[in-house]
Fold each of these.
Amino acid sequence: MRRPLGVVILSQYFHPEVGATQTRARELARAFTRAGHRVTVIGEFPNHPHGVIPASYRGKLYEWDALDGFRVLRVRVAASPVKSFRTRLAFYASYAFMAALAGCKRLGRVDLVLATSPPLPVAAAGLALADLRRAPFVMDVRDLWPDAAVALGELSRPWMIRAAARLERRLYRRALLVTAVTRGFVEAIAAKGIDRAKLHWAPNGTLPELFAPERGDAGLRARLGLEGRFLVTFAGLFGIAQGMDFLLDLAASYRDDPGIAFLFLGDGPLRARMAARASEERLDNVVLHPQVPPEEAAPFLNASDLLLVPLRDDPVFATFVPSKLFDFLACRPPVLLAVPGEAEAILRESGGGVAARPEDLASFRSTIEAVRADPAAAARMGEAGRRFAVSRFARPRIMDELVDAVEARLAAR
């Protein structure tokens, strides 16, 4: 029988915050707990995406919590509602410092440290903690950083880009195992000279029971004022990478078509700007709905006719697979994807939707009209996507395989 390990997972963003990072970190913790290990997650005081820490945490440096059979140690961070280079730097650095400090004194036995990145300082803190506790280090890569930060304009100073790239390579070299959410990321990391034997593909996947087509709400469309209209839905982070301005351009192009509407479900740094533009341009075909927890999202998704998975038109995103793709495939409607490369290959293999060119209005419109004109074909795509997501990308199985890969590397040391 294997010896239970003291596992520490560093994830700056964590439940009850909502997002792909938070979901993946929670599922990682659950998987290690299922395997019989003693798990502690170090997360921040909840503040994402607004940058405001609730009053109940103020005046504290850390707080213990419990979730799903594991411990959570939340630490204070320099959160700010203003998203500038300086405030982001303070935000990331404060978590890295507090996580490493708290981890040195309050965790008991530590046999393994796993850090999920980006932001890259989280992984740096994980390596520092692993060194201090003389424990192996595992790095979970959700985005290629600093590449993605440069593409989004979040990192532009040449010396900082060089420093981040050096740190990235050092973290890869020092890690016992590097896990990555896409095959493209695995290839990109291997191209930096990292041994393939220490690379493991672990896509985000989905929770089939959470996004089942049966999880609907017959009265939802009526409450939203969207009865009798072809409903196109985007759900997730209203951020730079998602190309939210373009999506409003798309909605505006349909302003004179009463048979179609656009639902934006979520939150993020661009929400206020989107709301202001929708109001100024009198986009009556746009509904902006507040973010809901993942367990409450399925009725909105299943009430839709088409689900959008877009990213901006930038070559760096060709290696990305948005986590929402798997959740959306598990739902009733077909998916409209605008992410070339690996994500599009997955969509085509699934048969669960259609592809458009990123930020190309004509491509989006022709694709939407094709789905709108053939409800029977749309239903078949939705059913195919569900079968594919359940059979190939069930998240618990993926996370259990990741734990197996970590244990195998530990045993081979």
Note: The mean pLDDT is 93.
Amino acid sequence: MKTYRTIILAIILSFATSFARAEKILTAIPQANLNYLSIYVADAKGFFKDEGLENETVVISGPLSIAALLSGDVDFSGAGGSGMRAALKGAPLKGIYFQSEKVTFYLVADPSIKSAADLKGKKVAIGSAGDTQDRMITMFAERGGVTSKDIIRIAVGADTNTRILAIKTGNAHATTVDPGGLVFAQKEGLVSLGFLGDLFPMPFQGFVATERKIRDNPAQIKRWLKGAIRGLMFVRDRPEEAVDLGIKKLQLGKATRAMVVEGTKNYVRALPQGVPGLPSAEGIKNFLEYDIKIPLQIKDDIPPERLLQLRLVEEVKKELEASLRR
């Protein structure tokens, strides 16, 4: 009986110690959509808790998220594009991790559009001239022999429903949508012309942290990365279970479970096999070129280390790979 009580006491003390040591952190994401399902899955599966972290996920738009990161109100931000553009202007931030190796956009169109060649002289709904999606559409069209000048661009903003409506009403003929938006678009009778992530590797959905945290608390960053990457791998390998874990947290309007599952399967096409998170050298080059230099009209090359600190995710990737081999 004494031994039994001793074991129970040891278990209780172990749980109490683990709870006491858990570090509270805040992770900001720009939208509660499928692109960030992995963070909610990491929460639900206890992947952050496994690393001694008590994570809270909050939804904050890009610029506000970066302001909160710089003020210390959040620890990690998924507004990677905003963060790295701020870093280029002198903000003490660095990109530490990319969820995908490819962009997650799909090109959808009116059923009368059958191929890239059919985009000649047609109206394409974009967010704003020169943005990433505009450039990806242009590249897609060029592969069909259509030049940039042959496309008529209509700026309609980022809202997926607005873009789909523009095609349905005849105000546009094609547009880009995210993986979940593809499901809605197809249900509205639009057709998919292709997955734009297949054009070339370009890491997407970056997370940023402050230079101070990278310098002073790299161990915490590595633990957060392990939890986040495990969540991402779970989404990739077990999409239906991932949806069941995170669907109540997502803001997807009237989407049914079946639609969310289908959208998640669309999303994972952008993820590499193995342990994700560390972009290829080619991907980093494309990211700096197409997501930073061109939209900001910068002529000089940008050294990757000016915006990125990927040493920690590289270490985590190796550690996770070693654990998978055991």
Note: The mean pLDDT is 90.
